[in-house]
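Homework-ish question, so no full write-ups if that breaks the rules, but can someone show me the predicted structure for this set?
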Amino acid sequence: MPIVRVEIAKGVATAEQKRAVIRRMTEVLVEELGRDPEFVFVLIDEVDTDNWGRKGRSLTELWAKTDE
Amino acid sequence: MPIVRVEIAKGVATAEQKRAVIRRMTEVLVEELGRDPEFVFVLIDEVDTDNWGRKGRSLTELWAKTDE
Amino acid sequence: MPIVRVEIAKGVATAEQKRAVIRRMTEVLVEELGRDPEFVFVLIDEVDTDNWGRKGRSLTELWAKTDE
Amino acid sequence: MPIVRVEIAKGVATAEQKRAVIRRMTEVLVEELGRDPEFVFVLIDEVDTDNWGRKGRSLTELWAKTDE
Amino acid sequence: MPIVRVEIAKGVATAEQKRAVIRRMTEVLVEELGRDPEFVFVLIDEVDTDNWGRKGRSLTELWAKTDE
Amino acid sequence: MPIVRVEIAKGVATAEQKRAVIRRMTEVLVEELGRDPEFVFVLIDEVDTDNWGRKGRSLTELWAKTDE
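A: Not a homework solution, just the prediction itself:
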């Protein structure tokens, strides 16, 4: 009955890519832990780059200069 | 000083229903655990159905066919 | 398909009380939002009082003086 | 490699204030725990006041009367 | 820079299985979203079966009867 | 009424250091956002190094070789 949460920056994944993440993360738990897929949940949280910081700066600032 | 978080799919609750959830979840913790309601917090997170998967598919896909 | 998480301080609830919280939180979502109980999940997280702070002090310190 | 999450009510912080929170929270973990800032993450979650309850009422209702 | 959290019931995964979950969840984000593995984090939270409820009962109770 | 959660690897902070983190994280929210300290909560979650992965390996494995 696992629950998976994935936090990614807003804008890095299309709807198609999010579907692939949901499908494959579920497979990992079915194949590696023998879980019933009926009860495997995957939630994706897309975080605004103003609201995600690394080394003291927001991703908005960091990504203005480099590509992560 | 409990904190409750409720994740529901976006669109399944009206503002009125969310108020009822907040009120009753608080009552549960006051009545069952003797907590001071002043310090009982309830946060509701409404998750886009594209971003919530079960058995490897998004709720958007699953709910297009059935009613959960 | 809601997921409820309840954070409480470690030691404030017995096994019996936790069962009551699980049962009643589930009822709230069934009765107020019409959710199917088969897919209502409640997770309880018991946090050490050294690891929970309010107004800049840990609950261990705060509760040494008063009863919250 | 710490991860910090900050939940605040939507509307209480400007972009400028959020940048200050990210910068200073990172400093706390670098200075107090000796963590490498390269791997200190801060995520801010701005919660709608309809979706945040205290003492059984939403912040929308509570703040209509008083100032927290 | 994604963060993945996996909640599973305590006891369903060995150390070996948890390593496989970490490795494969990381691969999913690298392959599907093009993320840099250096900044892909996976956290596993093993929840006591007394503290995880479904349909109003704890997993401890549910699993005493059936196999999920 | 902010809630702060800090996830750190188990073993990187003493009780004394955790108290400092709680105190200073609270100060950040009081000073930068003007929040009332009475309602600033800080929760620290200490994650086992077997349960925290980066670049597809657990911290237990990564730290056996280098210092993060």
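Now go work out the reasoning yourself. Hint: Strands of chain C lie at 3-9, 41-47, 52-54, 57-58.
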